[in-house]
Design goal:
Low-confidence stretches: 1-19, 21-34
Number of strands: 9
Distance between the termini: 35 Å
Oligomer: single chain
Strand order of the largest sheet: 5-4-3-8-9
Length: 198
């Protein structure tokens, strides 16, 4: 938890770093929504093998698009998601599956994604695939991202929109929570979607 706090403080202290976008400017080639979000099932690779959203029927799925080299927005958003998950009871948490899809498949291997994701929450699974697979899934969820060449060690950054998407237990896209949503509100949104005891 100390690392999460450190990452959050770092992200808040240096908002000018490139790599992730807090806003979605309506400029051509910018980070406007790729399409009206519709959602849909998909499968991608993880360190534990291929993972399909159909496997999580009956659970709430919390989905975030980002990448491990993101200097600011991703650590902040994932720390908020991790904090929201910690606010759930054990019984509630058992019915929620968080997923982190990389928009940087060139650098984000499944091993790197696993190591990165666990810093934010032990249930968070990092996913990747081919560029075409990721592009199709991002389009379905209205997520946008754009590679930007810069003079840095990595050679480029990836600007991207920042939402936590919540999938209801039946698999439908039920909510798109914008960057800055508090952990309390995020947890409340998940609870509203959890199956009610019979």
């Amino acid at each position: 938890m100390r690392l999460i706090a450190l990452l959050t403080i770092l992200a808040l202290a240096i908002p000018g770093l490139p790599g992730c976008s807090r806003d979605t400017p309506p400029a051509p080639g910018g980070l406007t929504l790729a399409a009206p979000p519709s959602g849909g099932d998909f499968s991608l690779d993880s360190a534990d093998g291929r993972i399909a959203t159909q496997n999580f029927r009956g659970q709430v799925v919390a989905l975030y698009f980002g990448y491990t080299y993101c200097p600011d927005v991703c650590p902040t958003s994932l720390a908020a998601l991790g904090s929201a998950l910690e606010k759930l009871t054990p019984a509630e948490l058992a019915q929620v599956q968080p997923l982190f899809i990389s928009v940087d498949p060139e650098r984000d291997s499944v091993a790197r994604l696993k190591d990165y994701a666990v810093f934010f929450h032990p249930k968070l699974k990092g996913l990747t695939g081919t560029p075409s697979e990721i592009a199709a899934i991002a389009h379905a969820y209205g997520a946008s991202y754009s590679r930007q060449e810069v003079k840095s060690e990595g050679g480029y950054v990836v600007d991207h929109s920042s939402f936590v998407y919540l999938l209801a237990p039946d698999g439908r896209l039920a909510a798109s929570l914008p960057h800055g949503t508090t952990p309390e509100d995020m947890a409340a949104a998940m609870r509203r979607l959890l199956p009610q005891p019979k």
